[in-house]
Amino acid sequence: MRAPKGYELDWALIIQGSIRFFDVFLGTLASGEEIPDLFGMEQGQFPRYMEGGIIEQKFVDLTDRVDETGRLDWDIPAGDWTIMRFVCANTGLALRLPSPNSGGLAIDHFSADATRFHFNYLLDKLHAELGDFRDTALKQLYVCSYELSGSTWTPEFLAQFERRRGYDMTRFLPVLAGCVVRDHETTARFRYDYRKTLGDLLVDAFYKTATELSNEHGLKLCAEAGGPGPPLHQVPVDALKAQGTLDIPRGEFWKEHNVWVVKETACAAHIYGKSLVDMEAFTSWRHWQDGPFELKPIADRAFCDGANHFTFHTSAHNSSATDRPGWVYHAGTHISPSIAWWPKAKPWIDYLARCSYMLQQGLFVADICYFYGENGPSSVYYYVPNVKVRLRDVWFGAVLAGLLWRGALWGFSLYMRDLSRYSIEGSVASIMVFLMWVYLSAVILLYGVEVTAAYARLRRHRRPDEPAAAQLEA
Predict the structure, then answer these.
(1) 112-146, pLDDT tens digit by residue?
(2) Alpha helices in 281-334, H assignment, sequence order
(3) For residue 192, is it left (φ>0), alpha (ψ between -120 and 50) or beta?
(4) Residue 378: CB partners within 8 Å, gap ≥ 6?
(5) Is 310 left (phi over 0), alpha (psi -120 to 50) or beta?
(6) Which helix (H) or strand (E) holds 21?
(7) Which residues of the chain fall below pLDDT 70?
(8) Of 353, 345, 343, the residue nearest 292 (C-alpha)
(9) Pairing mode, if any, of strands 180-181 and 59-61?
(10) Are 177 and 47 in contact (CB under 8 A)?
């Protein structure tokens, strides 16, 4: 068996089963044809290289039997076998919407060496042009949001996985091809470890390494390390951990578009002691349609969610030779001297500046701390526990939630009985009580789900983050 030209052969894993040969590309084909995003999939959604079967038979690692040309030399024992070859290939993904001189391939974000190479190249270019950064206006570097798909591997992934998770993942590689190893529960536990390792590598190898390199040159690093996330991009990272490694965490919010990464960024800043909660602010497809009157409500909402520094998206540079409205980016609410209302903008800019300054003072104090778990990369809006529950484990949480709900209903009925429905005060109070009832019902439901998950784990006597391989060794 010879490897296709242009690909690096990393492993050949033989599984006893039927005699079939196929490749599994960890990444995308060099042509740019994407494989499904393994990070964002649940069991049952994976590509089916093998039809349905659960792999419980013997594994044979044939890596040492493949020569440097990709030829496999192996005397196949009697029986039926499936030969799976795992290939690490370039994703073929380039920067989205690049400028004329920045249309190259994306780097390997899971490799610290790749990050150092990339940043040192850019910093050396800047040093050659500007000299000592301390004598310039350059104070920080900026990394935009992670907008890649299909990146699922790095050449050092096997070693990194074993160092971080405590076991060798080679026997579980067929899971990345859509197979079930041993049983569905074991496979799900391995996928948890796999995704968590991807997230840890993205934080440590890219964001943390890039921050350290920037600081070594007297610069700070600002990055949109936590989003925007699904459904736009499936970012393989724990957003709070990623934002916490930066000097300046940045989120984003849009005008009339369902992208709002503010609370998550503010939470990261509060947890890790960052004074600035920066925002890519007022992004949209509306261009020149909006002014301060339309923008102030969402600015106030962002302030209330924790933002305290706005970076306009966009404020395009225009040469004096260009006429109004000048050159602009393809997306954004354009805020610059080229817009018609710029001569009247001072009160609006002063308002944003004053609010930002005041919100940057002091330390944040929270009344409630909510821990959303360690189920790999997730969002602060992830609430329902990711756990499989047997039917006999559900009754306790269901009964508790039912009793709480009945008690709350009884209390509200007593209160509603005394309200006058024929007065303005009574009508307003009725509406407020109804809204409170909706909120309380949701809280009771969430509490019941959490109790059910905790009860199920207690009955099984297993930590939810126990490595998948532990069951195989038992």
Answers:
(1) 999 999 999 999 999 999 999 989 999 999 999 88
(2) 292-305
(3) alpha
(4) 238, 239, 372
(5) beta
(6) strand 20-26
(7) 1-58, 229-234, 321-322, 373-390, 415-430, 459-474
(8) 345
(9) unpaired
(10) yes
